[in-house]
Design brief:
Mean pLDDT: 86
Radius of gyration: 18 Å
Number of strands: 4
Helix content: 40-55%
Order of helices and strands: HEHEEHHE
Strand order of the largest sheet: 2-3-1-4
Distance between the termini: 47 Å
Length: about 130
């Protein structure tokens, strides 16, 4: 009985981990549009990762709805070498099926999205829109 319970728990943990690890790969594909938002580091620059990850990015998901297929966040931890400062405090990634999906979901919400930036950073973000090739 004890062995069966442990096996069930282990199976559930493995299944959950597998689903979490494959969900990002399953959602990104060649031809998708990737919007990269880079937050440069510099003297006096600040970034509130807690606000960004728990409030700003979920707000984007709500505002952009089903057109936003996936979002990811990177937190800068080092430059090229351990002695170099991080070039970017954070990087956000938004994935869409088409460029028009991004434009149609961002446009009507631009004022609210951009207006929220001072709540988590004092740096000016750099935005790049790319096509996923691999």
């Amino acid at each position: 009985m004890k062995t069966k319970i442990i096996a069930l728990i282990l199976g559930a943990v493995i299944l959950t981990a597998f689903q979490q690890n494959t969900s990002a790969d399953a959602k990104t594909k060649k031809g998708m549009i990737k919007v990269t938002i880079l937050y440069p580091n510099g003297d006096g620059k600040t970034f509130d990762m807690d606000y960004y990850s728990k409030k700003h990015m979920p707000m984007l998901k709500t505002l952009m709805g089903d057109s936003l297929k996936l979002l990811e966040i990177d937190k800068g931890i080092s430059g090229r070498t351990p002695d170099e400062p991080v070039p970017y405090l954070a990087i956000g990634y938004l994935y869409f099926d088409k460029l028009s999906a991004y434009q149609n979901s961002f446009g009507p919400n631009a004022e609210k999205i951009v207006g929220d930036i001072p709540n988590y950073t004092n740096t000016q973000p750099i935005v790049q829109i790319s096509e996923v090739l691999q």
